[in-house]
Amino acid sequence: MRQSILSIFPRSHAARIATMLSLAFMAGIATTWIVVQTYLDRRAELSIAEMTGGRLSQIIERCLNSLEPAKMNCAGQEKPYSFRFHNSFPREQDSFVSPLILILNDKRVRAAVRFRDNPPLPGLLSSRNNSTDLQQDSIYNPTLDATDGSRTFNQPIPASVRLASLSLAIARQDIEATLYIFLEQDQVLEISSPLLWRARFSETQGAFLTLFVAALTLSLCFPFSSTLMLPFRKLSQGTKYTRKSLGPFAPTEALAIQDNMRELVKRFDRERERQLLGLAAISHDLRTPVTRMLLRTEMIKEEETRERFASDLETIHDLVEGALDFLSLHKNTEERHRFSLSSLITSLCDDYQDMDKDVSFDSTLPIEIEGVASVFSVAPSIELSTQTRGFMIGKPKQLRRALSNIIDNSLKYGKYAKVFLGYDGSEQTVITIVDGGPGIPSDQIEKVLLPFERGNEGHKTKGVGLGLSIANEIVHNHKGEMTLNNSNEGLRVEITLPRDIFTN
């Protein structure tokens, strides 16, 4: 629905926003005009009702004074009122009748007002709530008692004043109404006013209409603005979205951004490929002369000099091999498939144990679950233990290499390597490795994940600073994350990987 409506908008995002604002503004102007015009019309009609009491009085008195109203032309129209004669009170269904006693000069007249719906302000028809500027008791009290300083007067209220008050009270109900005057011999005079006594918007209804239109405009603007921003939200998530995936009504700005992003990514990939190829070529070309130099060091007779040369050449050889290993990650052709992380880690740890290395694996981790709170206590924490095989989809050989690098690092700088496998309660598998060592200074944690970077203690052991960076690169290739932090058990390496089916 939103997409079909969006198709009539301009393709430019700026033009769409301008169009939406213009439509909202016009809707507000139209609603305001309708409400104000309705209010002014209502006030004008109420004023007419208040000023035409004399005309209403003439109609009623003429019919009351006629000996035979049906034969004395007691029917017709005197704007804004229409009147006609009935031999009996007409019966109607689904109407509300309010009986009245009208005191017109020296006469008491039975009357009734029939409304099409329940009148919202029935109190206006009563004597206490239908006063005029003369402070009279409205329709019922035939005299007016008032005191003004030194004089007191008691005069009858004119019928025109009483009927003006009655006409205004009926009009203020904002419902279609008819006035009935009961004559002699069950004869009835029906008086109506299509202009004054009709259904119309009250002031309260006008205010509610304004609020409704404002709420409706906002409720329409929010989903449409969300639809307008959807292509940009997709673009913010990366370059995996194509022009087609952005939708047929994507704005021209989003398409231009997507094209520019794809072009920049292509240029970056080409530049990175050239750099990797150059570095790989240099590393490959260095491998042969380094190997020859290692062989020639055997010809050096002085043992100390020979060992120094051999140590330096081995360092160069390790750098070359490490660089080639790091670069080979981008050329890896291993296929992804579903496998068990638990089985992979078990096999890896068994290999280390066969070499008498202090490496252990535990696939059982405690899981903390929030209990249900009650009115008497807070939600308790429930700790469970579960064993997992950690099924996931990925490249097992690469992950084995990443874990091997981390375990080697733990054995080199720590006392042992303990591996745990669990999950974080969501769709993530968590591998944790602790080494019982001194850890890494917090200001160097991010640094050691970079290629060829080593911590302050790195000079004490052999290495080129590629083990953790290669492991980090492999984890990122699996859409995971590797974090390092210090704990009571030494350096804590935590690897979070997306899983397929976690438990079995």
From TrEMBL:
Topology of this chain in the membrane: Multi-pass membrane protein
Enzyme class label: transferase
Localization in the cell: Cell membrane
Keyword Nucleotide-binding: yes
Major localization class: membrane
Transmembrane segments: 21-40, 208-230
This protein's name: histidine kinase
